[in-house]
Design goal:
- The chain is 39% helix and 18% strand.
- It is built from seven helices and seven strands.
- It has helices at 2-17, 44-62, 69-80, 89-97, 99-125, 174-177, 190-195; strands spanning 131-133, 139-144, 156-165, 170-173, 181-184, 204-209, 226-236.
- Strands 1, 2, 3, 4, 5, 6 and 7 form a seven-stranded antiparallel sheet that branches.
- A hairpin with a 4-residue loop joins β3 and β4 (170-173).
- α1 runs antiparallel to α2 (44-62) and α1 crosses α3 (69-80).
- The radius of gyration is 26 Å and the shape is elongated.
């Protein structure tokens, strides 16, 4: 981690050597995917700066840590212009000593907050008229009843679904795609796999799925309670793949 500190110092030093002209302020909206201007690699200082930046980015990539370019550049500008840093020197030293541990603590706090928000939502949602709470914790509300057959847990089904998190972000919507999903029930989220065999063809339900029956601790939707609108269209023949 001393090498990381060295690289940061090297980048800041590089900025200082080029202090004849003030560096442009970076827009907060700029991010890692933003298009950058080509760099003149015939300039030695540009080469040094690029090499330091590449090594820093490569180090974060190898350690599977995310870096926010805007924050890096803001730190460089603050140091170059002798501004009061946003963090104390003690905080900076502590963070760079063991960034993984620092991020883990932040992750644990976010995880706990997310789980508590989900529990609060489920507790409140359970009081709504028409909501059924199953022993597993899954909750459902019938939006429209169907008259067809109910699938077995081993069946393949065709269905529409619209999934969102508690902040309202829609992460999947087959309605807008215009094509329903076709899959084996055993291949969907545990909460949906529990609900589908209870539904009838033609029915449409709202599912409130606790985190442990959704994505668990995996992926960008980890620890989140999710809400799905599911419409069971048909039970498919076993050979329809």
């Amino acid at each position: 981690m001393r090498f990381l500190c060295y690289l940061l110092l090297l980048i800041i030093a590089g900025c200082a050597f080029g202090a004849n002209k003030p560096a442009p302020e970076v827009s907060p909206a700029k991010n890692e995917s933003a298009e950058l201007k080509p760099i003149d690699m015939t300039n030695s200082l540009n080469k040094l700066s690029y090499a330091a930046g590449y090594r820093l980015g490569d180090m974060f990539q190898n350690q599977k840590l995310t870096i926010v370019p805007d924050a890096v550049q803001q730190g460089m500008l603050d140091a170059r212009k002798n501004r009061r840093p946003a963090l104390t020197k003690a905080e900076i030293r502590l963070i760079l000593q063991d960034p993984k541990t620092f991020l883990a603590a932040d992750y644990d706090a976010l995880k706990q907050k997310t789980l508590e928000e989900g529990e609060a939502y489920l507790e409140k949602n359970a009081q709504r008229e028409g909501v059924v709470v199953l022993q597993s914790g899954l909750q459902y509300r019938v939006l429209s009843a169907g008259r067809g057959k109910s699938p077995q847990a081993t069946d393949r089904v065709r269905y529409h679904s619209k999934g969102r998190n508690l902040s309202g972000f829609v992460f999947d919507n087959t309605y807008t795609k215009g094509v329903p999903a076709e899959t084996a029930i055993i291949g969907v989220l545990p909460g949906m796999a529990e609900a589908l065999p209870l539904m009838q063809e033609g029915s449409r339900w709202e599912l409130s799925i606790p985190a442990d029956l959704a994505y668990g601790d995996q992926g960008p939707l980890a620890h989140q309670t999710l809400v799905f609108e599911v419409e069971l269209l048909a039970i498919l023949p076993p050979d329809s793949k």
